[in-house]
Structure formats: C-alpha cells, structure tokens
C-alpha cells in the first residue's frame, strides 16, 4: 500500500525485527543457558551467550536420574510417536475415504457425530477412559498412548482428509471400479497416492502433538523405564529441584530438537496446513 | 445368485433389477462400514461408552478401591456449595480465558495486518513468529518459564539491571497469572497465520470499489477488512476459547496452581481430584460441568455470531 513512504518501511522493519528477537528470546535463552556452567546460570542469567562454555551439561543431563538416562526416554518417545503417526495415517485415511466416497446408511448422522467430537474436550473422557484402560490392564503400558490413534483418535485428521478427498475427481474412482477394481483397491492404489500432501500434513501434526503430549504419559506411564521425554523431563526437573539448571536446560533443548528439525524441513506443510484447516 | 453367468432377456424383470439394486446398495453399505470401522470402534468404545459411564459415575462416590456408591446429586451440590477450591478454579480459569484469549487474538490480527502490507520478507517473519505456537505447550518451555521468571531468573536480573524492583513471580497471585497469560499470548502465531490466509482471500475489487467511492485507509479497514474477516475471527475465537479452558500442562508445571490456588485452572484441579485424590465420581461431575460450560460458551459465541459475523 505505502510504496512511496520509506519512513514507514523503516519503522516496520525495526519493529518486526525487534519483535522477532523478543519472540525468540526464550528459545535462544534456553539454548544459550544450556551451555552455561552452574554458577553462571544465575550470575549471568539474562545473557544469551555464556562467558564460559560448559559442554558437560549435555552428557551430565543425558545420564538422567535414578539410573535411567535420556536414551531410554528418547527411545520410548520415538516408539510411541512413530506408532501414533502410523496409526493416524492408516486409520484416518481409510475412514476418510469411507466417509467421502461411499454411500452407506446413517452416513450423515455418523458424519455429524464425527464433527461433534472434533471439539470435544479431552477432560470429559479422561476419567472413564482411564478406568477402561485400567480394566484392560493397560495402565503402565504404551497401549493407552497408541491404540486410540489406530482407531481414528484425532477426528480433525479425518475431517482434513475428507476435505482433501472431495477435491479428487470421482471419475477416477468410477473408472477403476468399472475396470474391476474393488473399493479397497481404489483406496489403496488411486486415492492414497493422491492424498500424499495431506498425509504429510497429518503425519507432521501427529508427530508434533504426540511428541509434546504430557497429560497422557503423566496419567498412564508410572514406571520410569517406559516414560517419554516430556514426562522424563518433568521428573528430571523435580529430581534436580532447581539445583542443576544447566543439565536440565540441555535436556530441554534436546527434547525440542525433533520438532525443530521437522519444522525446518516441513514448515511449508505446517503453515499451509494451518492456513487451510485452522488446526493448531 | 450368481451374476457372472449371462442373463437371458426373460430373467431381467423389474423385480430382478430392484433386487439387484438393493443387493448392490447393501454391499456398498457394508464396504462403507468396513472402511469406517476403526473410527466407529473408537467412537463407541473410547468416547460414547466412556461418556455414558462418566455421566453415571458423576452421581456416585468412587475411589477405585470399593465399588461405586450411588449418592445422587451430592457431588454436584458439594461442588457448588461446599468446595471453595472448585469455585476458585472456575474464577482462575475465567480470568485467564477472558484476558489471554482476546489479547492473543488482538496480537495475531495486528501482526497479520502488518504482514499483509506486501513488504518483503514477511514469509521469514511469519515463520519466526509461528515457532512458539509449535513448542509452547511443551515441558521444555515450562522449564524455561520456571527459570526465567524465578527469583534469580533472567527476567528479574534484567529488571534489576534497569533499576526496577524485582518481582516474586511465583509468590504473587497476579504475577503468577500474568506469566501464564504471557506464555499463551506468546503463541499467537497459529491464529496469525489463519488471519493472514483470510486477509489474502479478500478480493481486491472490494478495495477498488471502496476507493472509487472515496473511502480512505481507515474506512476501508472498518468497512471491508473487518467484515470480510469476521468468519475467521469467529473461528479463531471458538478454537482458542475451548483450548483456553483446557489449559493444563503450563499451569501444572510452572505455577503448580499456586500461589494459594490463584492459578488453579479447572483442568489442573480436575487432574488433582481424579489422579491424586482418586475421587473418580467427583472428577466425573467436574468433567460434565466443564462440558456444559464449554458448550454454553461455544453456543454463546455461535448465537452472537448472527449479529457480527458476515457471511457471503
């Protein structure tokens, strides 16, 4: 709009850059402080760059507490998150195809049910789900974290994929069916490959959310050996009780690394994903 | 009936066609149900079933050790008449939502408008501003907040260096609430991107028409931008309000609900009741009250939307 005034441009860039710094400060501070020796965490608290670099915070934090190291937590998180991603991709895509393309009885009603659960607060089902999984003897296992995702546990993903499938021309399905392809065949060989961009979005969000999840592990994972990174980090914080911030912040930084890497490589999908569907 | 054998003309009667059509429909229906079956099992087994069970439990006393005891409405009565912590948790949550969500949306809209002015580099800046939205709910960021706002943390060091009084963020009710609000507002990147997408959808000819009519910048903003954006403001408001009511991790880890329950958010109290006091009946009653509150809030936003949301 204001192509003529350069002054407004200058103000704009100063503001936007200064604000970027403010936005990133907590994150930069975390990385910076993770290299500070313990004494400097407080004596040089606000600075982003350590005066003395202490690389040992990382190996020290990695050893964890109570004999269980972060290698265990990372392995657990990778397993859980990997399973959640696979489960979400498989279940949500096939369910979405069923809803988008097949005319079964009560489809409209069931679709309304699906939509109504998109905004359902997790707190409503927390207690009864816990009691159910307790009956199944699933408490203190990975099942409560993984199994719901093989059963279309995130209705938003199903909704997103339905929207995407509706954009694929129906003629492709019909032609394949006339050629003798079954419904599952059409789904697997024709629709699934075309869904790739939407599936990438689903996979990234499933990864981000599962990696970040704190409440579910907190409720279900009691033994230290099966805890995920988020829960391990919290227990590490409690165990250290504020005495060794260096290793704690080193592990905090590491815990965000997978998300940062994913963000760097797939930010286009993330940004487009939110822009088109409004997921967070 | 075999369909693979060719049919003679006599066999293709209207009854046969009708029967065949029904058979096809049935098969189509079955395929459909087979395909949505994972969700169907999850929906009834993990959502509807548990919801019914939780509704029943909300009228009982259940500590997981002995069988649930039917107590009628006593959980609900207790909550509203004899549980100051419950009333406090409602107050804390409302205060939090009513301040944090409008602030977050105001920030996101303001920056979206700024980035929509077509200057170079807006892509990089939107990306930077979006980063906190991705990691803001993590335990790591809660660790950071705890240290940064600690007694000798980064923020107090800065305040001290500038000659200001240091603040006991975890000892002062409104300061504790403020750092949680700051943490939520910090994550304005996601609604900002949704706003930006909305702003780019507004057709240029609307602005041109307004220009022809002699409208200035401010008038265009009030008469074109805001009305065209109302569906998106509405969407963001609903999503963020619901998420705000469910805020758990940050309050649980950073302030632990303190000091003196001033940041005891609803979700934190519910967690305590259920998983620390093992009072499952009481917690179920709380869950249903939360559903009613969120439902009422959403309905209120929906109902009011006829007055301010502009759909084409």
From TrEMBL, chain A:
TM helices/strands, residue ranges: 12-32, 78-97, 109-133, 145-165, 186-211, 245-266
In its UniProt record, which GO terms are filed under biological process? transmembrane transport
Q: Which InterPro entries match?
A: MetI-like, MetI-like_sf
Q: Which CDD domains match?
A: TM_PBP2
Q: Which domain of life is it from?
A: Bacteria
Example of a GO cellular component annotation carried by this entry = plasma membrane
Q: Which PROSITE patterns match?
A: ABC_TM1
UniProt-annotated location(s)? Cell membrane
Stated membrane topology is: Multi-pass membrane protein
What keywords is this UniProt entry annotated with? Answer: Cell membrane, Membrane, Transmembrane, Transmembrane helix, Transport
Q: Which Pfam families match?
A: BPD_transp_1 (PF00528)
Residue limits of the ABC transmembrane type-1 domain? 74-266
Question: What is stated as this protein's family in its record?
Answer: Belongs to the binding-protein-dependent transport system permease family.
Q: What is this protein called?
A: Carbohydrate ABC transporter membrane protein 2, CUT1 family
TrEMBL record, chain B:
The UniProt transmembrane annotation reads 30-56, 92-115, 127-145, 175-199, 280-302
**Is Cell membrane one of the keywords UniProt gives this record?**
yes
Q: InterPro entries, alphabetically?
A: ABC_transporter_permease, MetI-like, MetI-like_sf
Topology in the membrane? Multi-pass membrane protein
Keywords noted in UniProt: Cell membrane, Membrane, Transmembrane, Transmembrane helix, Transport
Q: What is its main location?
A: membrane
Localization: Cell membrane
The name of this protein is Carbohydrate ABC transporter membrane protein 1, CUT1 family
* One GO CC term, this protein: plasma membrane
- Quote the PANTHER family the UniProt record gives: ABC TRANSPORTER PERMEASE PROTEIN, ABC TRANSPORTER PERMEASE PROTEIN YESP-RELATED
Q: CDD domains under this entry? A: TM_PBP2
Biological classification of the source: Bacteria, Bacillati, Bacillota, Bacilli, Bacillales
Family recorded in the similarity comment: Belongs to the binding-protein-dependent transport system permease family.
Record GO biological process = transmembrane transport
**Domain ABC transmembrane type-1 residues, every copy:** 90-301
Q: Does the keyword Transmembrane apply?
A: yes
Which sequence ranges form a coiled-coil region, renumbered to this chain? none
Species of origin reads: Salibacterium qingdaonense
């Amino acid at each position: 709009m204001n192509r003529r005034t350069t002054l407004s441009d200058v103000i704009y860039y100063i503001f936007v850059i200064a604000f970027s710094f403010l936005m990133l400060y907590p994150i930069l501070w975390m990385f910076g402080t993770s290299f500070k020796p313990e004494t400097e965490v407080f004596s040089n608290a606000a600075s982003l760059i350590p005066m003395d670099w202490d690389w040992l915070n990382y190996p020290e934090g990695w050893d964890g507490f109570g004999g269980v190291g972060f290698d265990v937590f990372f392995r657990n998180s990778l397993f859980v998150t990997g399973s959640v991603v696979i489960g979400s991709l498989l279940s949500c895509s096939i369910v979405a195809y069923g809803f988008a393309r097949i005319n079964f009885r009560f489809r409209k009603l069931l679709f309304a049910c699906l939509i109504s659960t998109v905004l359902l607060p997790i707190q409503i089902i927390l207690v009864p789900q816990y009691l159910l999984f307790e009956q199944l003897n699933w408490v203190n296992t990975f099942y409560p974290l993984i199994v719901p995702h093989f059963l279309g546990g995130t209705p938003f993903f199903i909704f997103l994929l339905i929207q995407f499938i509706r954009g694929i021309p129906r003629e492709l399905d019909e032609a394949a069916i006339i050629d003798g392809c079954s419904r599952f065949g059409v789904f697997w060989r024709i629709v699934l490959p075309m869904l790739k961009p939407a599936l990438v979005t689903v996979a990234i969000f499933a990864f981000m959310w599962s990696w970040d999840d704190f409440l579910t592990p907190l409720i279900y994972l009691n033994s230290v050996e099966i805890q995920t990174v988020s829960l391990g980090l919290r227990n590490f914080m409690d165990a250290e009780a504020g005495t060794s911030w260096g290793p704690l912040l080193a592990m905090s930084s590491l815990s965000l690394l997978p998300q940062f890497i994913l963000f760097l490589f797939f930010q286009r999908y993330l940004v487009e994903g939110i822009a088109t569907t409004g997921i967070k | 009936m075999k369909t693979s054998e060719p049919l003679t003309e006599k066999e293709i009667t209207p009854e046969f066609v009708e029967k065949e059509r029904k058979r096809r429909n049935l098969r189509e229906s079955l395929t459909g149900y087979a395909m949505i079956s994972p969700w169907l099992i999850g929906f009834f087994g993990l959502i509807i079933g548990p919801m019914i069970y939780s509704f029943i439990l909300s009228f009982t006393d259940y500590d997981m050790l002995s069988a649930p005891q039917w107590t009628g409405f006593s959980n609900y009565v207790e909550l509203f008449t004899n549980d100051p912590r419950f009333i406090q948790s409602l107050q804390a949550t409302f205060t939090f939502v009513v301040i944090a969500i409008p602030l977050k949306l105001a920030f996101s809209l303001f920056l979206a408008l700024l980035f929509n002015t077509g200057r170079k580099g807006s892509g990089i800046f939107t990306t930077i501003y979006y980063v906190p939205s991705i990691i803001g709910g993590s335990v790591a960021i809660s660790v950071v907040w705890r240290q940064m706002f600690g007694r000798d943390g980064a923020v107090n060091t800065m305040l001290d260096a500038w000659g200001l009084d240091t603040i006991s963020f975890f000892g002062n009710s409104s300061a504790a609430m403020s750092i949680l609000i700051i943490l939520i507002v910090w994550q304005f990147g996601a609604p900002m991107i949704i706003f930006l997408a909305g702003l780019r959808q507004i057709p240029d000819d609307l602005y041109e028409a307004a220009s022809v009519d002699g409208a200035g910048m401010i008038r265009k903003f009030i008469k074109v931008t805001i009305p065209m954006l109302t569906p998106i403001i509405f969407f963001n408001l609903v999503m963020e309000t619901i998420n705000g009511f469910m805020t758990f991790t940050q309050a649980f880890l950073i302030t632990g609900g303190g000091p003196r329950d001033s940041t005891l958010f609803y979700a934190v109290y519910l967690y305590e009741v259920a998983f620390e006091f093992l009072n499952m009946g009481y917690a179920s009653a709380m869950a249903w009250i939360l559903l009613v509150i969120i439902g009422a809030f959403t309905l209120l936003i929906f109902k009011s939307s006829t007055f301010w949301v502009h759909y084409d």
